[in-house]
Every structure is written in structure tokens, then in C-alpha cells.
Amino acid sequence: MSSSLKIVTIVGARPQFIKAAAVSRAVASHNAAEPARPVDERIVHTGQHYDENMSDVFFDELDIPRPHYHLGVGSGPHGAQTGRMLEKIEEVLAAEQPGWCLVYGDTNSTLAGALAAAKLHVPVAHVEAGLRSFNRRMPEEINRVLTDHVAELLFCPTAAAVANLAKEGVTRGVRRTGDVMYDCARHYARKAQAIESPLMGRLGITPHSYFLATVHRAENTDDPERLLGIMGALGDISTGARPTVLPLHPRTRARLDELGLSVPPAVRLVPPVSYLEMVCLEKNAAAILTDSGGVQKEAYFYRVPCITLRDETEWVETVDAKWNTLAGADRATIAAAVAAAPGTDGRLAWKPIYGDGAASDAVVAELLAARPGEGHGGARR
């Protein structure tokens, strides 16, 4: 007689699908190894981010399971969007009656999934728990704090994340598993090798001969002074021999057009790239400039110096390790940070601070071993 465990996974944006795919692969491996004790995973896509690139090609290229439910919530103000998600996720959870509700990261989908599950007394497991930027003006910070305080299992990528939770009185149900994004980086780096040469040839670049930049956060794109500072810095550091490749986010393009800002000639604007193309560009860059949390970590995974175009980061370990520099949006500060960045010649020590690439297996094992109701969230109900 089999003893199965059902989990409902809540995701709402493309990066969450990629992370969840790592855990889904671990689920498949477990089911193959232990068919008498299978895990039945149901994936729910809230539709928080409508992304036309999430076509069949996206799922096929990255070996990502299709969602069982697509809620089609779409964009909107935070309160309205989260409220619509709550209503629809509640219906799914009531119908599926899972043993766990698994949420990822810090989006509105994360919070809505956690709240809907907690109110139905479905235990919540949070992947990427314990991260803190300590900036409560960021919606993501509110989402991650609230999710952590209703979760019963909290999967922390680092020791710093565990310490953050302890400072808030959250110690039960906390597990340091490593980072599922590191699992993804290792898996997709191998897949990306097949497209590396064609991509480099198409863009006219060679490994370590260019900078890579991404700019998309509202705090930068919606503040003309910050956006001007960042674009000015990109112009300052770029030359014909070492250009900056900038896959341009639609929000950023719209703001540049509104400001009438011309892009320096050595900054090569390219359309948004696929995930595997981004992996190729990250692995081979001389340095990366970004306001993305995920890209900061991927830079570290691939041992590429990073300059973060923000005033704070959740990924403090990368800064402590001196592979990442917080430069904000000041033109001179950014250019100086690039000039001072370490090369890729091994001058800096690199440590596996995000685990050994098996975080997803640890997540599945903990879900199977845990007894719902004994973790942090369960203790508080």
C-alpha cells in the first residue's frame, strides 16, 4: 500500500518557475527511487506576471512542468492583485487538500499562497526563507517577512538567512538547505553550452570581452535621476573593445523614450533574452551590473564580479565575499566600482556559500520527513 504526499506549488513569475522546476526534478527523482512513497505535486500559476515568452518553447527548452492550474490573475495594484489571488488559490487548496503548500521567494503570489493556505490550516513551506533587505518600502520585503511568519517549514539558503529568522523569534521549522537557484545554475549551465558559440557570434562578442547589464527595478526606472546616473555610468565604462551588453526590459525602454535619453554607442541594446541565453551572457561577462536579486546570485555562482545598482541587497554574503559591490545609482560610484572589481583570474577566494547544488533534494526530503503542525506556523495557531 502506497503512502503518498500531495503538495501544491504556487508560482507567479518566470524566475519562480525556473526555481520550482529544480524541486520538480527532485520530486521526479524521489518518485523513481521510492515508488511506494510518491510525492504528488500540483503546480498553480497565478498569472501574476503575464509573459508572452512563457510559451511551449519556454517550458520545453527548460524542461519545466506545465502548471496544472492557471489562475489568470494578471497585473494590478498590490492589494487588488493579492486579493484576487487569495480567492482563487483558496479554491484550489480546498479542492486539492494537500499536505503542504509550497511557495517561493517574495512576490505577491508568494504571500497570497501563504495566507490562503494558513487560513485553511494547510501547512506552508517557504523556499528562500529568511532573506532580508531591511527596507520595508520594498513590497518584496513585506511579502517575505509575512510569509516567513506563517510558514511551518522555512528553507533557508544561507546561515545569514537562518540568523535573520532567529532575530525575529522564528527558530522552529527552520532548515538550512542551500539555494535551489544554485541547483538551477549548475543544471542550466550545462544545457546552455549548446547555444553559447552561436549567441556570441550573433552579438559579435567573445568571452570576458564585455560587460553585461540589466536594469528593471522600479526604484531605478521610475526615478529619472537614478536612471540617468546608471546610463551615464554604462557609457563611461563602455568602449568599442569592451562594450556593455544591455538586454532592455520594456519598462526601461519606455522610460528612456520618455526622457528622450540616447544610449551611448558602446552600450549595445538587445531585446530581452531567453533564460539560457542569459546564462551564457552571465558566465562569459567580464563583470555584471544589475539591480536584479537573482542575477546578483548567478554572478556569484559563475564567479563573475558583480556591481549592484541598488543601495541594499538581500544577498549580503556576496558582498561580504567581495564578489559584489553595492554602488547605488551614482554615476561616479558605479564607474569606480567597475574599475575596482576583481578580475576572473582567481585573485578572490570563492566558497560554496549557497550549498552543494542539492538544495532541491533537501527540500523534498524535509517535506516528506516533517510532521505538519509542529513547525513555526503550526505552533502559533
Beta-strand percent range: 5-15%
Order of helices and strands: EHEHEHEHEHEHEHEHHEHEHEHEHEHHH
Secondary structure category? alpha/beta
* Contiguous helical run count: 16
Q: Tell me the number of structural domains.
A: 2
The order of strands across the largest sheet is: 3-2-1-4-5-6-7
Measured between the Cα atoms of the first and last residue, the distance is 33 Å
Per the principal axes of the C-alpha atoms, what is the gross shape? globular
The overall pLDDT, averaged over residues, is 91
CATH topology group of the largest domain: Rossmann fold
Helix content: 40-55%
Describe this structure in words.
- The chain has 381 residues and is of the alpha/beta class.
- The protein has a seven-stranded parallel β-sheet with strand order 3-2-1-4-5-6-7, with helices on both faces. A six-stranded parallel β-sheet has the order 10-9-8-11-12-13, with helices on both faces.
- Helix 7 packs across helix 11 and helix 9 (224-237) packs parallel to helix 14 (331-340).
- The chain is globular.
- The protein has 16 helices and 13 strands.
- The chain has two domains: 5-179 and 356-380, Glycogen Phosphorylase B (Rossmann fold, 3-Layer(aba) Sandwich), CATH 3.40.50; 191-340, Rossmann fold (3-Layer(aba) Sandwich), CATH 3.40.50.2000.
- The model has no long low-confidence stretch (mean pLDDT 91).
- Strand 5, helix 5 (139-148) and strand 6 form a beta-alpha-beta unit.
- Helices cover 47% and strands 14% of the residues.
- The protein has helices at 14-33, 56-62, 78-96, 108-119, 139-148, 159-167, 180-203, 218-221, 224-237, 250-259, 275-284, 293-301, 316-320, 331-340, 359-369, 376-380; strands at 5-11, 39-45, 69-70, 100-104, 124-127, 153-156, 174-176, 211-214, 244-247, 267-270, 287-290, 306-308, 324-326.
